Amino acid sequence: MRAPRPVFVVPLAVVAAGAVAAVTVPGVLRVVDEHLRAEAVDRATALPAPDGAVELTGCHADDLIACWGVDRAVTDVAADLAARLGATDSGTLEHDCSPTLVAPDLESATCHVFLRLERGHGVFAFVDPTVDRDEDSASVVTGASVSLSAW
């Protein structure tokens, strides 16, 4: 029996290595994704509600963990959440507020606070103004609503 030629052995080894990688890599990535999602959910569920917050019902968001109403300024609530969430070795904290027209005659800040983990996972808090009408029917900001999600 003759020894196999290198011209056949080398491509066969490359195909075998590719097959092993094709089977192994998706499984490893799935485990990593599950771990990162679990870390994000754990961080979000451990985050205490902002001072003075009340639980809101009727909130809708992907992977919603909590929804609160707070009788405080939007920027103060966002800063509070950012301080409580904090950055970690595995994540980067992003905190930003920008002015938004919330009624025809009223501009207010809207904020987001993100703890970004790897591969698109993280904790995501959106802080929006709560708008109502005063006794003169003028639009006024009466507080903030917070939706907290993790994925």
Helix fraction bin: 25-40%
Question: How many distinct beta strands?
Answer: 6
What kind of sheet is the major sheet?
6 strands, antiparallel
* Tally of alpha and pi helices: 2
Which structural class do the helices and strands define?
alpha+beta
Oligomer, anyone?
A: single chain
* Mean pLDDT over the full residue set: 88
Q: Unreliable runs, pLDDT <50, ≥5 residues? A: none
Instruction: Based on Cα principal axes, name the global outline.
Output: elongated
Q: From N to C, what is the helix and strand string?
A: HEEHEEEE
How large, in whole angstroms, is the Cα Rg? 24 Å
Beta fraction: 35-45%
Distance between the termini: 58 Å
How do the strands of the widest beta sheet line up side by side? 1-2-6-5-4-3
What keywords describe this structure?
single chain; 151 residues; alpha+beta; 6-stranded antiparallel sheet; 2 helices; 35% helix; 37% strand
Task: Characterise the protein shown here.
This protein has 151 residues and is of the alpha+beta class. It is 35% helix and 37% strand. It has helices spanning 6-46, 74-85; strands spanning 54-55, 64-70, 92-103, 106-116, 122-133, 139-150. Strands 1-2-6-5-4-3 form a 6-stranded antiparallel sheet. The N and C termini lie far apart (58 Å).
